[in-house]
Amino acid sequence: MDPFKYETPPSVADAVRLAGGEAKLLAGGQSLLPAMKLGLAAPPVLVDLNGISELREIRQEAGRLVLGAMATHASVAASTVVQKAIPALAWLANNIGDRQVRHRGTIGGSLANNDPAACYPAAVLALGATVRTDRRSIEADDFFRGLYETALADGEMITSVSFPIPERAAYMKFKQPASRFALVGVFVAKATSGVRVAVTGAAACVFRVPELEARLAVQWSPDACEGVTVKADELNSDLHGSARYRAALIPVLARRAVAAC
């Protein structure tokens, strides 16, 4: 690992001042630190956000659930506020990685990294959440751009994520047993604004499935997922599963998620 300068700002304003350029923001460090150890990343400055208490807040306001960017997976899973407002989100957080990962990893770090098999992007996209940064608010449909790519600009920092509270929601994950990342994960949500279905793990980036959404909007039932075919053309293939296998899993997991609601 190359030498670097280590900053521990006490506030968001201080962190923003230090961010940008070649500096890297450090949240849970679950992706950045391994990359640095392997020599795949060598930032000259690390800006550690762990000392900023306001970024850990979990609260409900104006009919929405707001999670601070530094809320860990474990704190989201254990929060009675989250369990009451969006139980599916608490369940998702409690099934990320192992105990060590859940106590270090954060929702902001997960979204900024946008790993193609991460769980949180599916929840954010399916629930139609808003990602708030030090500069602006970004709707979920505009946030995820591609493989490890988001709408965040250089030095822009996620401060919180705001979720509208759905009528019903559930997440089902077919996980790779060693890493516990999603081989395929499907999050379904029904709200007054409509039905949204988001898939993670199957492609280079989280995506929605319009046919499942249309079927479930007409009939909110597991049976509505029967007969839906997802094209495998742009899906991932690796030693854990082919693109066709992942495509076949999507409607199966969607059906299970609707049943779980």
Provide a descriptive summary of the structure in words.
This protein is of the alpha+beta class. The chain has a domain at 168-260: Enolase-like, domain 1 (2-Layer Sandwich), CATH 3.30.390. Helix content is 32%, strand content 25%. It has helices at 12-18, 32-37, 73-78, 80-85, 87-94, 99-104, 107-113, 120-126, 140-143, 210-218, 243-260, and strands at residues 5-7, 24-26, 45-48, 58-61, 64-68, 130-133, 137-139, 144-146, 149-150, 158-164, 168-175, 182-191, 194-200, 207-208. A five-stranded antiparallel sheet has the order 4-5-10-6-7. A hairpin with a 6-residue loop joins β13 and β14 (207-208). The chain starts with a strand and ends with a helix.
